[in-house]
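Input structure tokens:
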């Protein structure tokens, strides 16, 4: 997304973008993962703010507010402050040749929806 000179975003800010390979109904599941870690570690939002530098308002918006899709860097900062990393691991084999036509049809359908 492009940025204007004053730092604000241009484009469809606030529009929910759909992804064929990553689906969630309410909030991003990463929020639930972080919430569980915070509870398991026994820290509160103020302590996590001090440890991570992420604002307490951000945590309130994740856990009780309207944030649906937090930024990865912010999630990673909160996790790292508690000693966790954000691991990417292969969980299934994908036959790219057979998936490409399906993925293209899905993208075309999304484009028609507008």
């Amino acid at each position: 997304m492009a940025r204007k000179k004053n730092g604000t975003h241009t484009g469809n800010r606030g529009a929910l973008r759909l992804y064929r390979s990553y689906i969630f109904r309410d909030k991003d599941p990463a929020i639930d993962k972080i919430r569980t870690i915070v509870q398991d570690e026994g820290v509160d939002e103020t302590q996590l703010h001090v440890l991570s530098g992420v604002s307490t308002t951000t945590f309130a918006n994740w856990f009780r507010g309207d944030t649906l899709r937090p930024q990865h860097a912010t999630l990673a900062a909160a996790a790292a402050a508690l000693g966790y990393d954000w691991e990417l691991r292969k969980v299934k084999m994908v036959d790219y040749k057979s998936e490409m036509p399906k993925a293209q049809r899905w993208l075309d359908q999304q484009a028609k929806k507008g």
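Residues 1-10 have pLDDT under 50 and may be disordered. DSSP finds five helices and no strands in the chain.
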